[in-house]
């Protein structure tokens, strides 16, 4: 039924549960599995002392630290996949997570299933901008499985 599956991972308990489900589905369907972690570009900026001051970029080393953290999440997840007998590719993306997931993984790259946790690690962004999961469910053009 499903041949190309992407699972989004942010290190949260819900994304770990999503990984377990995605691996089971990949095994059952003999499907390709891609592990995706999105480095949130909005976290590269912090606000000045007032909203009108604008945003100031964070140092490049902080961006690299976020990329390294995302890669560690994927490495750990790939090790789990291998232990389950599933080969998975990995992809670290940058951008606004909900947009990257919808645009790249439901529209451009031809995945027929997106697996995502019901909520992730970024509670502040969820309050300010809305849930990534809710956005993906509303806007994806492919099947979305929410795990949590």
CATH class: Alpha Beta
| Overall pLDDT confidence | 84
- Main beta sheet: strand number and arrangement? 5 strands, parallel
Q: Tell me the number of helical segments per DSSP (H or I, 4 or more residues long).
A: 5
Low-confidence stretches: 46-54, 124-129
Shape: globular
Strand order of the largest sheet: 5-2-1-6-7
CATH arch. level architecture = 3-Layer(aba) Sandwich
Q: Could you give the distance between the termini?
A: 22 Å
Which structural class do you get from the secondary structure elements?
alpha/beta
Provide the β-strand percentage band.
25-35%
What level of helicity do the residues show?
Answer: 40-55%
Output the radius of gyration: 16 Å
CATH superfamily: HUPs
Total number of β-strand segments?
7
| Overall structural domain count | 1
Descriptors:
148 residues, alpha/beta, Rossmann fold, five-stranded parallel sheet, 5 helices, 26% strand
């Amino acid at each position: 039924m499903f041949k190309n599956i992407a699972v989004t991972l942010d290190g949260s308990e819900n994304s770990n549960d999503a990984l377990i489900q995605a691996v089971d589905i990949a095994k059952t369907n003999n499907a390709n599995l891609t592990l995706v972690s999105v480095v949130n570009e909005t976290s590269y900026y912090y606000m000045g002392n007032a909203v009108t001051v604008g945003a100031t970029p964070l140092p490049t080393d902080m961006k690299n630290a976020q990329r390294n953290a995302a890669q560690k999440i994927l490495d750990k997840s790939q090790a789990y996949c291998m232990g389950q007998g599933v080969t998975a590719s990995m992809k670290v993306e940058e951008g606004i997570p909900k947009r990257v997931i919808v645009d790249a993984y439901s529209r451009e790259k031809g995945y027929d299933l997106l697996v995502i946790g019901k909520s992730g690690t970024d509670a502040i962004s969820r309050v300010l901008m809305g849930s990534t999961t809710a956005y993906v469910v509303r806007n994806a053009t492919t099947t979305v499985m929410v795990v949590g």
